[in-house]
């Protein structure tokens, strides 16, 4: 029987929703047990949140001062040791998971499977390639541990309820590297919903015209309670910071509603929104590729259309 270890992603003492999505992928395998591993200097709050995710048997914690910040070089040796006895090790396919899990796979001597979007069997999975233009089926060696990142946009978050998972502190005997150290974390602060977990997202592209003009995107997003995103073209033009970028080289998201404003629809951008529920496109170019995937399209000047939409909200 399969036994799966899910690596918890957290920041500032708060569990990231991506962890619950990884649990959903684990549950699709129908394993004997799903455990979550929390690594931190102070594990209590995150472990308590993780224990509330339905389907989780145990929440294992490793509390060490070295785990105060999620450094892949420091976390990976501990995860590899803790993975003993597990058939699968999963982590979200986020910046965190993409940083940590390849090191874990290397330490365990296996090839990582990236961006799992569906489970076909205990060792058989589907994942996108070629910027999402093709889906391939990959099969892992059943005699080795499966190390995989989970495409969070393809999975719903597992439900949460009362605490059901048992919390257990463990220790691992492993030497930690000293060549990597934490210097500083820089992150933007916003009262808007998190881009990767938001149900509604409003994104702007090069068609917005300037950094100053992008205020119309922020204002409209705030009006409807949405997160703000952007195309790579808008980021490269300096309209917004890179952490708002949606697409193949940015964030992969799956909101219930995605509104693309002034975005032409390059394939790299469409890769990041292919799992969105409803896509609305606003662009003055009626031939823009974004209209090929949009459920609803408005052709016209965004600076006239958006104020009209705001009056209807």
Automatic annotation (TrEMBL):
Matches recorded under SUPFAM superfamilies: Adenine nucleotide alpha hydrolases-like (SSF52402), DHS-like NAD/FAD-binding domain (SSF52467)
Record keywords, A-Z: Electron transport, FAD, Flavoprotein, Transport
Source species, domain of life: Bacteria
InterPro entries listed in its UniProt record: DHS-like_NAD/FAD-binding_dom, ETF_a/b_N, ETF_a/FixB, ETF_alpha_N, ETF_asu_C, ETF_asu_C_CS, Rossmann-like_a/b/a_fold
Domain named Electron transfer flavoprotein alpha/beta-subunit N-terminal: residues: 4-186
The keyword Flavoprotein belongs to this UniProt entry's keyword annotation: yes
Family assignment from sequence similarity: Belongs to the ETF alpha-subunit/FixB family.
Protein name (record): Electron transfer flavoprotein subunit alpha/FixB family protein
